[in-house]
Amino acid sequence: MTTEDALLQLPARPGRDSGHRPAGGLLSVVIPCHDEEAVVAVTHARLVRVLPETGMDFEIVYVDDGSRDGTLARLETIAAQDGRACVVELSRNFGQQAAMSAGLSVARGDAVVIIDADLQDPPEVIPEMVRRWRAGVDVAYGQRRSREGETAFKLLTASLFHRFFAGLMPYPVPVDTGDFKLLDRAVVDAVCRLPEKRRYLRSLVPWAGFRHEAVQYDRHARHAGETKYSARRLLGLAADAVVISSDKPVRLTWVCAAALAVAGLTAGLVAGNGGESNAGVSLAAVVAVACLVAAVQTAAVAIVGEYVVRTYREAQGRPTWVVRRTLNAPSARQATPADTARAA
Ligand code: UDP
Ligand code: MG
């Protein structure tokens, strides 16, 4: 019998090799929290009710991102009453992206779900994400079928930005998705190993590759409390996301340079062919053209400056977040079978 024949006669092995994952294991849920005192207790109750449906052991990692209200006190109570809840207290507000990355770095699960604290993303979708993961998908991302409680302006700008952003990326980036997703351990490790400090997970996770699949769901209105994103903060986040994820804006300056060169050459040809001098050209028109050219050049310098600033920040090498304290820290808890398997 040839080796090929022998291979053909081997029974299909269950487990990761065939794309299916065995039952059991540990599921981590990472939740960034900033000023969420009105909702964290309800969120915890909803999670512990629904997570047993996954058939996995679970841990819930709350990252307190410099809350100024009673969020931390509520999280301390939750951690004192439930050993499955871990609290990572950051030393100040570092922003949602940093908070999620901090949570990913301590999560020990075979699969890790990221979810907002405000119950806009229903925890009841998690068992379906776990089912997709078991079937072999590495990233099961929530895709919004509908969005309750958002203004028409926010819906339109978010939809336009998602499509614009996806168009900029050289790899597929799903639209109408947020940070609500399940990641396989291999994806979490790949993302956590990236050395960059300024992190935008919505482009880092697709960058990592692996097998992605959408899980459709209806996004609810916030259970309580207020959004942490003013229009100004959203705009800043969008600009940051684009500049740290893509070099296309700086390349756009070549297009501007080419357009200006074509305009200049055309004007030169017209002048060379005896185009009118002075007559009909007002001073205002000359000033308008000069201002336009100066604006394009200033914008080009500013775009380059945005990249220089981010390069400078990366060169400084400051950590993305600082931990003040951890409650029910994973290392202090009992090792799970997942830990033992990973250590082996
Ligand atoms: N968040 C955070 N740090 C911040 C801002 C927000 O950890 O600086 C958390 C917040 O508590 C919530 C999630 O990020 O769990 C999403 O924030 P929010 O619901 O305000 O955003 P929206 O859904 O309105 O876009
Ligand atoms: Mg929200």
Description:
With 344 residues, this protein is α/β, with parallel strands linked by helices. It folds into two domains: 3-234 and 319-343, Alpha-Beta Complex (Spore Coat Polysaccharide Biosynthesis Protein SpsA, Chain A), CATH 3.90.550; 248-316. 48% of the residues lie in helices and 16% in strands. It is built from twelve helices and eight strands. An eight-stranded mixed β-sheet has the order 7-5-6-4-1-2-3-8, sandwiched between helices. Strand 1 (26-33), helix 2 and strand 2 (57-64) form a beta-alpha-beta unit. It is elongated. The two termini are 36 Å apart. Mean pLDDT is 87; it is low at 6-17 and 332-344. Uridine-5'-diphosphate binds at residues 32-34, 36, 65, 93, 95-96, 99, 116-118, 120, 227-229.
